[in-house]
Write a structure and sequence with these properties.
493 residues, binds histidyl-adenosine monophosphate, alpha+beta, single chain, 17 helices, nucleotide-binding, histidine-tRNA ligase activity, HisRS-like_core, BirA Bifunctional Protein, domain 2, Rossmann fold, five-stranded mixed β-sheet, eight-stranded mixed β-sheet, 35% helix
């Protein structure tokens, strides 16, 4: 199993994509450090995508004052969140939360570090080989979570039957996978998950699919941009039964078959052979996976098959929700996680430029693999990276400025105390207030600062007005100026 080093970077990561930048950079110019040239060349190298730079201590730097510079790049495959990217992340998560709320789901969370054994499944899944795992200082084998579903299963088991079912839970959390990086695939990403525990029927899957479509629609994405391929693992199960392949090999076969588009056919056949699938069955499996219509599916596995019935019912429900245009039956969707047992689905962009946008399915036996009882469950994971790529492609990225209502400034040092009081009173009314705390700033700077912040008002405290109990209020949009008492100012907000 791959073992990657874990650094202190767990809490900081974000969306790399540049957001529409509406603000000019701050006019603040930090004092130039002595090693300025070194830092600048570093930044240039970082921008040109060079590998981490090793830095020498600048000659002549006094000991103890400035140590050697570290690389300013985050670890490979991870992200920082400068404010503009953080605003985008918050916006995205707010939309995840809002949709989950509309569907009456409750939010849960789990630790980022879990016991390694939660993930060491034996069906040959990629995700297991990609674990960021290590031994903690107490000698326990732990791993950074690569997904949220095992943690959710653990929590359901821990809560036991005392819960009132069905559980409808959602979570938004960072996941770590030591992946080969491609567009939209990173070593860390955030995932929005919605899961329903305790409902055996496809009514649960229909709710989840409807939530996903609601989310896309909220963001301005249409069924011309995105589709959701839907299938059912029972299709493959029926084919395996036809060839008398033991049920035990089913999860491993699903994981192998999921790699069909990535690996050469001989390699797939070799892996299937190792999993106990005879070569005459391979043809049958491949044929089943190429099906795109229910009629063909019925012809292959029979109209009475559970897979056909479930798929038909799910598509009928989709009509009720009005999401039928988004769904496409496609038997080639199997998904690479071993635990799925029934419906499986994957969101894809219709221009075929991006990796899967989201994915999920039914996993009725995951809890029993952890020692609990079989419990009907289904859910999906929706990453933060591919959706942002899609929004960029479709020019749907929102403009998210940092919004400031009032800038408050004391024109003389002796008025800093009342200025703090004015800021406090405005903030208590819910106004976003930037109090000028720097000293010696000129009016030219203040107006520029207001412009950078896109502030709506400037409140100035000068001694002449303040002696009359008043402040100078400049409405920056209307370009009007009035003298007001603080009470009048607060009332007028
Ligand atoms: P998954 O297909 O492995 O499923 O991941 C779900 C989604 O997470 C993907 O469709 C993608 O949006 C995002 N994702 C996964 N890996 C990466 C990566 N390396 N970089 C960026 N984004 C990524 C699961 O994880 C299941 N546990 C989902 C689930 C929940 N099934 C039932 N409940």
């Amino acid at each position: 199993m791959a073992c990657a080093s874990v650094t202190g970077h767990l809490l900081e990561s974000g969306l790399v994509v540049p957001v529409c930048r509406t603000r000019k950079p701050s006019s603040f110019s930090p004092p130039k450090p002595k090693f300025f040239t070194v830092r600048r060349s570093l930044a240039i190298r970082a921008m040109s995508g060079s590998p981490a730079v090793s830095l020498k201590e600048k000659e002549g730097t006094p000991k103890g004052s400035m140590g050697s510079l570290i690389s300013t790049d985050p670890p490979k495959g991870t992200r920082d969140f400068p404010p503009e990217d953080m605003r985008l992340r918050t916006w995205l998560f707010n939309n995840f939360r809002e949709v989950s709320r509309l569907f009456s789901f409750e939010e849960v969370d789990f630790p980022l570090v879990e016991s390694e054994e939660l993930y060491t499944r034996k069906a040959g899944e990629e995700i297991v080989g990609q674990l960021y795992n290590f031994e903690d200082k107490g000698g326990r084998k732990v791993a950074l979570r690569p997904e949220l579903t095992p943690s959710l299963a653990r929590l359901v088991l821990q809560k036991g039957r005392a819960q009132s079912y069905p559980l409808k839970w959602f979570a938004i959390g960072q996941c770590w996978r030591y992946e080969r990086m491609t567009r939209g695939r990173r070593r860390e990403h955030y995932q929005w998950n919605m899961d329903i525990i305790g409902v055996p029927g496809v009514e649960a899957e229909a709710e989840l699919l409807s939530a996903i479509v609601t989310f896309f629609t909220k963001l301005g994405i249409t069924s011309n941009d995105v589709g959701i391929k839907v299938s059912n693992r029972k299709v493959l199960q029926a084919v395996l039964e036809k060839f008398n392949i033991p049920v035990d090999s089913f999860p491993a076969v699903c994981v192998i078959v999921d790699k069909l588009e990535k690996l050469p056919r001989e390699e797939i056949e070799g892996e299937l052979d190792k999993a106990g699938v005879p070569s005459n069955a391979v043809e049958g499996i491949l044929k089943a996976l190429s099906l795109k219509s229910f009629d063909d599916l019925e012809a292959l596995i029979g109209a009475q098959s559970g897979a056909v019935a479930e798929l038909k019912q799910l598509f009928a429900l989709a009509e009720g929700y009005g999401i039928q245009d988004w769904l496409h039956f496609d038997a080639s969707v199997v998904r690479g996680l071993a635990y799925y047992t029934g419906t499986v689905f994957e969101g894809f962009d219709k221009d075929k430029k991006l990796r899967a946008i989201c994915g999920g399915g039914r996993y009725d036996r995951l809890l029993s693999t952890y020692g609990g009882q079989d419990t009907p469950a289904c859910g999906f994971g929706f990453g933060d990276a591919v959706i942002v790529e899609l929004l960029k492609e479709k020019k749907l990225l929102p403009v998210l400025p940092h919004v400031v209502d009032d800038v408050v400034m004391a024109l003389e040092d002796s008025l800093r105390v009342p200025a703090a009081g004015v800021a406090a009173r405005l903030r208590s009314k819910g106004r976003v207030v930037e109090l000028v705390i720097e000293k010696g700033k000129k009016m030219k700077w203040v107006f520029k600062h207001c412009d950078t912040l896109k502030a709506k008002r400037l409140v100035l405290l000068g001694s002449t007005e303040w002696d009359q109990g008043k402040v100078n209020v400049k409405d920056l949009d209307a370009r009007e100026q009035t003298l007001k008492t603080v009470d009048e100012l607060i009332e007028s907000t």
